[in-house]
């Protein structure tokens, strides 16, 4: 593979981080999602402390209702947080 661009490297990092929490079956369970958000998105997203908040986020992301978050569903979270982050940059 030729050298990746800066953006491509970021995309690969997102995939690697997802897999480091999803394990080999490539889907996040509820506790995996909580660990990922609390440890990898701690500056942009408020820490998830309670079960109710976790349940709400999980339910919103789980588009196919299989009680797991696949990479496609996880991508929606990345897009939402990145978009919100972009909007907040413009307020500065
Ligand atoms: Ca799902």
UniProtKB/TrEMBL annotation:
| Biological process, per Gene Ontology | positive regulation of canonical NF-kappaB signal transduction; positive regulation of cell population proliferation
Q: Which PANTHER family match?
A: PROTEIN S100-A1-RELATED, S100 CALCIUM-BINDING PROTEIN
**Protein name in the entry:** EF-hand domain-containing protein
PROSITE patterns reported for this sequence: EF_HAND_2, S100_CABP
Task: Alphabetically list the UniProt keywords.
Answer: Calcium, Metal-binding, Repeat
- Superkingdom of origin organism: Eukaryota
CDD domains tied to this protein: S-100
Q: Which GO terms describe its molecular function?
A: calcium ion binding; calcium-dependent protein binding; RAGE receptor binding; S100 protein binding; transition metal ion binding
Q: Tell me which InterPro entries the record gives.
A: EF-hand-dom_pair, EF_hand_dom, S-100_dom, S100/CaBP7/8-like_CS, S100_Ca-bd_sub
Which residue intervals define the domain EF-hand in the entry?
A: 49-84
Where does the secretion signal sit in this chain?
none
* GO cellular component terms, A-Z: cytoplasm; extracellular space; nucleus
What are the coiled-coil residue ranges? Answer: none
For this protein, the record's SMART domains field holds: EFh (SM00054), S_100 (SM01394)
């Amino acid at each position: 593979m030729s050298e990746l661009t800066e953006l491509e490297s970021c995309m690969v990092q997102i995939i690697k981080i997802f897999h480091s929490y999803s394990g080999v079956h490539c889907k996040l369970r509820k506790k995996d999602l909580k660990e990922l958000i609390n440890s990898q998105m701690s500056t942009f997203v408020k820490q998830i402390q309670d079960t109710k908040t976790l349940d709400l986020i999980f339910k919103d992301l789980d588009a196919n209702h299989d009680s797991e978050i696949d990479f496609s569903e996880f991508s929606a979270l990345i897009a939402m947080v990145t978009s919100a982050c972009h909007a907040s940059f413009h307020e500065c």
